[in-house]
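Troubleshooting entry. Yesterday's outputs looked truncated, so today I'm pasting the complete records for two proteins to confirm everything comes through intact. If either block looks cut off, that's the bug. Protein one:
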Amino acid sequence: MPALKGKFEFRKSPRTTRRSLLFALGYCLMLSTTLSSCSEAKNNTQQSAASPVSVASSNTTEKQVVRIVRSKQLSALAVLEKQGSLEKRLEPLGFKVQWAEFAAGPQQLEALNANGLDIASTAESPPIFSQAAGAPLVYLATTRPSGKAISLLVPVNSPVKTVSDLKGKKVAFQKASIGHYLLVKALEDAGLKLSDVQSVFLAPADANAAFSQNKVDAWYIWEPFATRNEQNKIARVLADGGKLRDTGNFYSTSRQFYQAHPDVIKVFLEELEKSEIWTKDHPKEVAQLLAPVTQLDPPTLEKMHDKYDYGLVQITEKTINKQQEVADKWYSLGLIPKKVNVRDGFLTPEEYSKITPSDVLANK
């Protein structure tokens, strides 16, 4: 045993030598076992630190999460959250739902691109600005326009009587939003250009504060902001988007989420369409359900119900062509850095047929 030389001193007595040898063998065995255990523990620790996912993946009961934008409007999406039917449908697929709140469409799509959101709900323009920035989004479904639910507000005592009177005035809106798009269309309809007004880019909450403090002359915004300001006698409606709006909203996701979970998207759209139909047919119940969400009383919400068109609409070539027209408008105004081919974000007809609810496909 060369390794033990110098550590143990052997005497010439056979009995002593025998005892020493037994002790040395025992010590060597203990030392070998200890070193082996330490080495194994160290390796296990390093492996666990290097691949922490392996521990979580062994837990088969842990559910995945689908993150969907929360709506604070009078909408089928808000009803869907309140009724909880989506959670029940997704449970067998191993998914739970997380509802996330954002100021407006552009903020949603920033989160979508940064993997902070899985399903967004926006107007037509935010996806175009997102595509211009190189985001690989996918258009999932579209809706009817509901133009009356977006309003151009002026202070209740404002001398402004027509859109033409806004020339040179400060107009607030969320950049790249439906308010932005409809302002462009309203000004063009009045023979003006966007450069004829002072654009003030503000998210809804900030615009609301600026408008109530008379720091801006007008504000293009959606419900329930418009009705709240009317009720509080802060604003009056100069014009709504009823005649001007020629596009619907879009539900969108990231290319990665679509490719990984088309089954989840299919269930989401099916439950959303059911919610659209229920919302259309039950104005009183919807008003009661969404009063806390919108911060408006049920009678007001019942009146607002008629401002909306309900139901998903099948995405067709007409949808894609219209979205391209909007994209070309933003490029011509110099508000996106490059021409966008919106088709890059749309699926094929065959792909849409697999995720679109059957009753939506039937209503061509």
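Protein two, checking that the full record survives here as well:
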Amino acid sequence: MAGWNAHDIPDQSGRTAVVTGANSGLGYVTARELARKGARVVLGCRSEARGKAAVEQLAGEVPGAEVELGRLDLGDLASVREFAASLPYERIDLLVNNAGVMALPYGTTADGFETQFGVNHLGHFALTGLLLPTLLAAPGARVVTVSSMMHLLGNLDPRDLNSELRYRRWIAYGRSKTANLLFTRELAHRLDAAGADLVAAAAHPGYAATNLQTAGVRAEGRRAAERLVELGNRVIAQPAEAGALPILYAATAPGVRPDSFTGPSIAMWRGAPAPSPRARWTRDDRAARGLWGASERLTGVSYDALKA
């Protein structure tokens, strides 16, 4: 793993990958590098205009790339269902659950869930479940869910998953990233019990410069705070190309283990991909099962393919 970079990605010819939030930042870099190695890549994007621009940019950077756009709003379960139903493929080799929102003012999704929990966790939980039959049809398939070092900010409160009792934007973000890790853990357990040839793993980018950091303060019109965050992105953060490496490693490197968590090697912050520390509460099997049950009830998506 030491010194691993995009040149080390194995050949992806003949494989189909779905990357959410792929119109910019980490998702775009992930999609581009997979396409560069021969994968057919579906960009799942909320904005059709930004998605089309990303497809054009990627095609320019990777001549001959097989890339297509699908409209996907993870804050709307109807959109998640439409996106999953629109994919014409009998098998999908890789799903990268990358899209997310960070530290937004309190709001709710189209289905009434707190936005960060709804988009970062529930939307991806539903999408993975809906695509599960096509993932199981692909030998050696993977589901990689992008969490964050900020999961250390908070464990889930099963009595207040939607932060209705008290909302603190950064705590809510940390909890949604904890949910990503608990989801990965329980999915890995269920896949193992079913004897499925599908690996569920997680990754995080450390501190990578993307537009995610500025979205919250921009939504509130806090220009001074936005400029401060932009300065931090330029001076402290690593570029998106480096931040995407742990995601690409988890998605493509040989021998990636179920429920592994890959991140930057230097203090969870920057550097080459390496096994990442994680909070003890993300290894709580009881909490993972509880979140799974709640997620099935809230989304209406049941992983029936693992129950046969």
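Both blocks look complete. Sanity check on protein two: Residues 213-218, 224-235 have pLDDT under 50 and may be disordered.
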